[in-house]
Amino acid sequence: FNTFVGGRFEKLIREELLQRLDIITPQKIGRWWGHYREKKTNNRKELEIDIVALNETTKEILFGECKWKNNVDGNQLLKNLKEKTRYFEWSNKQKIGEKYYIILAKSFKKKNTEKNVYYFDLNDLEKILT
């Protein structure tokens, strides 16, 4: 059940929320899958970023991670998301300009204030979407 709802939660964010936020004006919104090779073992590791929103005109990009869980450690989620974004490339090899990050969860136990980082819990989403 949580997997199903989590997928719908991500879809809601991509299709409804991003257009209402005043972070970037996205021209393209989707997900991203990629991979890298571990240095020690050379094993292929898969990566997924729940939300990628691009503005090709301004070169701005927004990366997001959604968790349908309570008491999420937003700091750890942000750290993991930033690590994944190291492997992201635009398909046409454009240089990325300003980067933004959004972390979404039912609720948070930890979240720091940091430039270009936004945290949203269910209470925040209710205010934005209604």
TrEMBL record:
Coiled-coil segments: none
InterPro entries assigned: DUF234, Restrct_endonuc-II-like
Domain DUF234: 1-71
PANTHER family: ATPASE (PTHR34704:SF1)
Protein name, UniProt field: DUF234 domain-containing protein
Lineage of origin: unclassified sequences, metagenomes, ecological metagenomes
